[in-house]
Amino acid sequence: MKRIIVIIICILMVSFAFSDEAESETKKRRIYSGILSPGIFSSLCFGLGEVSSSKRTEGLIIVQIGAGPMFLGGGIYLQKRFFKDTTRTGVFYTFDIGVDLILGAGADPGGGSAGFVNILFPNIAAGIGYSKKIGENTYIRLSIDAGIKAVISNLNLSVTF
């Protein structure tokens, strides 16, 4: 329990680093993102964040739920997206920090079932992607990331609005 509390405190501290300074005369709006990550660990994610019309970045808190051949999992992480300009189209870069929890079938050397094991992983990753505007304040994005996390690399398809 203490470990989880320490991790939550660390995530909150990092969220302050991800937040942009307050500025005058700019419009801020809430953004939502739905993300599909196919692969060995297929997952669905939902993100919530805020974007400023004068900034080239987006910051989101993302909740992930997924499954693999012998395990279930989930996680929560902060993602910062960096764009070349305020239109937030074209090539962009990402940085993620958070935690992943994997619930998997345990292995027993005697051939029996050892039940489920819980493994907590850090989620620290960087990535690159491409963003295309498909409507007013709506974007479709394809990205790939890699890092220190439960699944080393992900291919992501997302819609942000």
Question: Could you characterize the architecture of this molecule?
Answer:
There is one protein chain. The chain has 161 residues and is mostly beta strands. The chain has a single domain, classed as Porin (Beta Barrel), CATH 2.40.160. It has one helix at 2-18; strands at residues 28-37, 42-52, 57-67, 71-83, 90-107, 113-135, 138-148, 153-160. Strand 3 and strand 4 (71-83) form a beta hairpin. 27% of the residues are buried.
Question: Secondary-structure map with pairings?
Answer:
Blueprint (H helix, E strand, L loop, with lengths): L1 H17 L9 E10 L4 E11 L4 E11 L3 E13 L6 E18 L5 E23 L2 E11 L4 E8 L1
Antiparallel strand pairs: 1-2, 1-8, 2-3, 3-4, 4-5, 5-6, 6-7, 7-8
Give keywords.
11% helix; 1 helix; 161 residues; 8 strands; Porin; eight-stranded antiparallel beta barrel
Strand content: over 45%
CATH class equals Mainly Beta
Give the tally of β-strands: 8
Helix and strand succession? HEEEEEEEE
The domain tally reads 1
* CATH level-3 fold name: Porin
Tell me the structural class: mainly beta
pLDDT average, as an integer? 83
The poorly predicted ranges are 20-24
- The neighbouring-strand order within the major sheet is 1-2-3-4-5-6-7-8
CATH architecture: Beta Barrel
Number of helices: 1
Largest sheet: 8 strands, antiparallel, barrel
Helix content: 10-25%
Shape: globular
Any idea what the radius of gyration is? Answer: 17 Å
Termini Cα gap? 36 Å
Brief write-up:
The chain has 161 residues and is mainly beta. The protein contains one helix and eight strands.
